[in-house]
Amino acid sequence: MAKSLLLGNGINARIGITGLAVSEIKDRFRYNMYRNSFVSETLYGINLSKDVCNDIIQSSKVDGIESLAGSLYTYIKTHANQRWTDNDEIRLQDIVKCIALTSIFYDDMGKICTSYDSKKLLNISEYEKVFTLNYIEFWDKAEKCIYLHGKFDLDSLGDGQNILLGSSERNCYSKYRDAMDIIGKFNNVKLIDTSNIIFSPDSIPKEKLIDVIGVYPSSNLYFADDLFPHSKRELYVQLWEAEELDIFGLSPYGDDSLIDVINRMKSVTIYVYNMETSTEVEMWDKKLYCPHVFKDSSEINNLAVI
What we know:
two-stranded antiparallel sheet; alpha/beta; 10 helices; globular; single chain
């Protein structure tokens, strides 16, 4: 049987894309929360001052973007002095997603540096299909990857200083639009359609995201200019046909719905960075009941393009 490959963010560390380092994204996230403060103040009555942003960062369990986003989401939802509606939930998930995407792909000078060491690329011709959890694979010029969380079209947005991403759907809501107009006096605001990007703060399971469960009538949902119907979608349906899977650069923590799909496989090989000392082996072992083996990530060098 032909193997498929599943990639996580670890592939970026391997090929040397330093702008996607956890520490750098963390610093940008802190800054971008503060830049978005007028939105949170307008919609939820919450001022994200520099001190509050620091407290949110410090409250995060780990430095990963999902955890940081979870701390922001929880802070706003906990401190909002209003009856919480489904409309509020839809807007908050979208706002947090835009802050996260800005933090992943832009610094204050523009797009992050995406140069990489081509000698450390993987030979994807060894695989029938290549799946990725990343929103962009900068080396994927031939567009071979299947983007399980959606593909972010970075090139179409252009470049420039002080870019701040906003939601085109939320911009139909006057309070959000007015807030973004004010923010736009000091920032280069670019509106994007976020509906096809799956991003989950760690406080929300991916299968519970609005973009996954869909938007349907309910007693807690009210007509608004930024209310658009979304049908339910199945996560990771593209993976269902895979039977043998190599996993590279992926942590076992977090997404249980992905683990459920992986456990359908007939054979799984997990490449782990510094396998002999990593705690991830034990965690993978606890979560996987399908046939699986571990290899140190250095062993995949045998497949590298030289």
